[in-house]
TrEMBL record:
Coiled coil: none
Gene: obgE
Residues binding Mg(2+), per UniProt: S172, T192
UniProt key word Cell inner membrane: no
SUPFAM superfamilies per UniProt: Obg GTP-binding protein C-terminal domain (SSF102741), Obg GTP-binding protein N-terminal domain (SSF82051), P-loop containing nucleoside triphosphate hydrolases (SSF52540)
Domain OBG-type G: 159-331
Record keyword Nucleotide-binding present: yes
Domain OCT positions: 341-427
Cofactor: Mg(2+)
Name of protein: GTPase Obg
Organism: Eubacterium segne
UniProt-listed InterPro entries: G_OBG, GTP-bd, GTP-bd_Obg/CgtA, GTP-bd_prot_GTP1/OBG_C_sf, GTP1-OBG_CS, GTP1_OBG_dom, GTP1_OBG_dom_sf, OBG_GTPase
Gene3D superfamilies reported for this sequence: GTP-binding protein OBG, C-terminal domain (3.30.300.350), GTP1/OBG domain (2.70.210.12), P-loop containing nucleotide triphosphate hydrolases (3.40.50.300)
Enzyme Commission code: 3.6.5.-
Quaternary structure and partners: Monomer.
């Protein structure tokens, strides 16, 4: 079964906690701290698998979690790092943040392996906190929290050329004749269910990838039939081939069909109409009467803006001219596939870079400070220790929080509430 959309939950591994321990050996009853660091949590990595062409595997499994790092041990032993989680996807998969729809990564071009969520850092063991005045530190740093994200996976086919047309105009027959693809071919009025890709081999190694884009019928851009589901597969293409039934075997008007499909493309994404187009007027072997008269009528409507090639996908007539013309059109572009830029960096959002903190005056003598960066920092800082509290104060100063409190009129002795903690303020 073909599947080109999925929604999953991903989570990196939490960092292992630092360890609190002291050297205890014979004749050394009061040895120094020797607690080891925690291991790093596993990353969540997306990797292109050339053998995949569908997102079917994600229809039954929706939760993906990397391993956490292990806690540090005695004798300065560092905890084991958590194993990375590698999620394999077809080339052309776009990863989006589920709520906003912003692009996290496009698994195309050079993006064959992307770290989407980084594992948490391991916490430092108590060996790092020994000072001249604090020789027996009973504090170790907790491991950094994991990162988590709901994402959607959307497969947009990687093809140089998109083949569009109404059902039963001969697209599958053309694809099977000029490429290595093996689409199902039959005389039916409903559309192919899978976007079929094939490689056209031309002399001199100048081939290209062509995709039969199914589902294009009137109303496709509004979700009628399968159209909206499959229109996404044409977005990466550089050239569009309109295939029409020039013989009007089923009584359709080929000129009206081209206009209708262009209308659907424009409604879905107006930028698609800026792509070069060519018309493949198929089934000329089935035209009754004067073939030239039919073709001349189509040419009069669309040329010179869109070149028309009379062809027969069954006999092969006209295909060579069509394919070499398409190759010439592609030569105007670079060979790199269309790759969508990143719009959403999970690390920025989950570490609170977008919204560092909020400082509010609740009432006279009482202030509140909140923000994801502050909450995260409190998670791995022991503010009950002298060293940890000094680190916390420096964090508040370096991030401009103390200055903002002063701008709000805070005075010595006033109370500051921060996520369940209360502090008296003094300059």
């Amino acid at each position: 079964m073909f599947a080109d959309f999925a929604k999953i939950f991903i989570q990196s591994g939490k960092g292992g906690d630092g360890h609190v321990s002291f050297r205890r050996e014979l004749y050394i009853p009061n040895g120094g701290p020797n607690g080891g660091d925690g291991g790093k949590g596993g990353d969540v990595i997306f990797e292109v698998d050339k053998g995949l062409n569908t997102l079917y595997e994600f229809r039954h499994k929706h939760n993906y979690k990397a391993e956490p790092g292990q806690e540090g041990g005695k004798q300065n032993k560092t905890g084991k790092n958590g194993a990375d989680l590698i999620i394999r996807v077809p080339e052309g998969t776009i990863i989006r943040e589920a709520e906003t729809g912003k692009i996290v990564a496009d698994m195309s071009g050079k993006n064959q392996r992307v770290i989407v969520l980084k594992g948490g850092r391991g916490g430092k063991g108590n060996q790092h906190y020994a000072t001249a005045t604090m020789q027996v530190p009973k504090y170790a740093q907790p491991g950094q929290k994991s990162m988590e994200l709901n994402v959607t996976l959307e497969l947009k086919s990687i093809a140089d050329v998109g083949l569009v047309g109404f059902p039963n105009v001969g697209k599958s027959t053309l694809l099977s004749r000029v490429t290595n693809a093996d689409p199902k071919i039959a005389n039916y009025h409903f559309t192919t269910l899978n976007p079929n890709l094939g490689v056209v081999d031309l002399d001199g190694g100048r081939g290209f990838v062509i995709a039969d884009i199914p589902g294009l019928i009137e109303g496709a851009s509004e979700g009628v039939g399968l159209g909206h589901k499959f229109l996404k597969h044409i977005e990466r293409t550089k050239v569009i081939i309109h295939m029409i039934d020039a013989a009007s075997v089923e009584g359709r008007d080929p000129i009206a069909d081209i206009k209708a499909i262009n209308k659907e493309l424009e409604a879905y994404n107006p930028e698609l109409l800026t792509r070069p187009q060519v018309i493949a007027a198929n089934k000329i072997d089935a035209i009754y009467g004067d073939t030239n008269e039919v073709i001349d009528k189509i040419k009069a409507e669309f040329e010179p803006e869109i070149k028309v090639f009379p062809i027969s996908a069954v006999s092969g007539k006209g295909l060579k001219e069509l394919l070499f013309y398409v190759r010439e059109m592609l030569d105007q572009f670079d060979d790199a596939p269309t790759v969508y830029e990143q719009e959403y960096n999970p690390e920025d959002y989950q570490l609170g870079i977008e919204l560092p903190y909020t400082v509010e005056k609740i009432e006279d003598g009482l202030y509140s400070v909140e923000g994801p960066r502050i909450e995260r920092m409190l998670g791995y800082t022991n503010i009950d220790s002298e060293k940890g509290f000094m680190f916390f104060q420096n964090f508040m100063k370096d991030n401009g929080i103390l200055e903002e409190l002063e701008n709000l009129g805070i005075e010595d002795g006033d109370t500051v509430k921060i996520y369940g903690h209360q502090f008296d303020y003094y300059k």
